[in-house]
Amino acid sequence: MSPKALDYESLNENVKKVQYAVRGELYLRASELEKEGKKIIFTNVGNPHALGQKPLSFPRQVVALCQAPFLLDDPNVGLIFPADAIAKAKHYLSLTSGGLGAYSDSRGLPGVRKEVAEFIGRRDGYPSDPELIFLTDGASKGVMQILNTIIRGEGDGILVPVPQYPLYSATISLFGGSLVPYYLEETANWGLDINNLRESVAHARSKGITVSIAHAFCLNNKITNLDIFWNSEAVRAMVIINPGNPTGQCLSVANLREILRFCYQENLVLLGDEVYQQNIYQDERPFISARKVMYDMGPPLSNELELVSFHTVSKGYWGECGQRGGYFEMTNIPPKTVDEIYKVASISLSPTVPGQIFVGLMVNPLKPGDISYDQFIRESKGILESLRKRARIMTDGFNSCRNVVCNFTEGAMYSFPQIRLPPKAIEAARRLGKVPDVFYCLKLLEATGISTVPGSGFGQKEGVFHLRTTILPAEEEMPAIMASFKKFNDEFMEQYEDHRGYSRM
């Protein structure tokens, strides 16, 4: 009898290739331990509310009223909800064709897309067209839509930064393309060397690859756990993640200019993953969008380079991961291509409408003089200031540990320390059939309950090992978490080192 369609042997081979470390072996083991009663600190994913971050009051009030519009007719509604929340709820309900239970346009509510365009115009100093903005179920769904449009088969390559967020490697595998890596340089605070990027593309093309813009800074170094690299015939796009995930760096204007020139010269689409643009923890390099830098550079680049930018309500001081609100904006994309993207988006009928309203509230925030403004500013500033403190506590904590070194988290929500594993630990891991940093992270999980992601899930140079953790645990809990990590790490190193004084780098 021939296998059935959902028998493992007959599945789509691209599905089998997908690896997603953020919810991989470590997460599954952590979930098992939690069921057994062990306290687990899930630092494997940027999920702020799951780690105790409180929702902002005003957007929740607005969406609550939109979800239960009958409350607006209650004569006592003003005793519970502030007047500006009531007004906002009526505004967003007026933009729908039947409330939150009705489908919207497949691109999202026109009124919210207009608000996104106005936000982009204020941020960048250049107008944006609402017709080139699509609202999506989180930024991830938008990334998948665009990669699905770009990738025609395994011969198509996407440049992705290494270390990279595994959304990209997983999606590229799912759609049958090839990931082309470019390395970020750890000793330069995860910066980009444009010469290494050029070498990566030249190497790819020598193998018959054409480069696509998927913020992939490919260096001529070996990579662990990313065997799909260098298999494509056409590099078509480049991905940049700014601020970086998992590395936490912020790209300078000079770096962005180099990237934009490179993409223009190589005829690549630039995919700008800018979901952490509100998460900045230093003053030297504020967030500046790739779009703004592109327009500042002027023609011909500014009116020819194809650019798609992504944003979401899941990050920043909002942290509304479960609401699934996001958008992408297209610049210099041909109208016929936009029509095709719209056609494919229509298959899903509509992005989630509550998520769209959260996007509207993010891009069209309260203004001075509004009733709820002071509370909103107090809440949002409090979250960002606490994240800045936590970034410093975590960086200093890692750097106090034996054989651990960590760059400061300039932005985003993660630390990505390098763990210098002794040869005996590497050999112990291999005897168990484990990648060495997976072995280390499993030991950490069992000993402390801290659930991280091994660096091999993001890509890294051969023989170099990392882990990624969020900086999201509560500020008051952070010292104890870092003390627990230090105790485990020092005992681990004591067990596996042949002698003291092992090099930190």
Structure description:
- By secondary structure, the protein is α/β, with parallel strands linked by helices.
- The chain contains 18 helices and 15 strands.
- The strands form 5 sheets. It has a 5-stranded mixed beta sheet.
- Keywords: Aminotransferase, Pyridoxal phosphate, Transferase.
- InterPro entries: ALAT1/2-like (IPR045088), Aminotransferase_I/II_large (IPR004839), PyrdxlP-dep_Trfase (IPR015424), PyrdxlP-dep_Trfase_major (IPR015421), PyrdxlP-dep_Trfase_small (IPR015422).
- It catalyses: glyoxylate + L-alanine = glycine + pyruvate; glycine + 2-oxoglutarate = glyoxylate + L-glutamate.
- GO terms for molecular function: alanine-glyoxylate transaminase activity; glycine:2-oxoglutarate aminotransferase activity; L-alanine:2-oxoglutarate aminotransferase activity; pyridoxal phosphate binding.
Features:
18 helices, 42% helix, 3-stranded parallel sheet, 5-stranded mixed sheet, Aminotransferase_I/II_large, alpha/beta, 15 strands, single chain, 505 residues
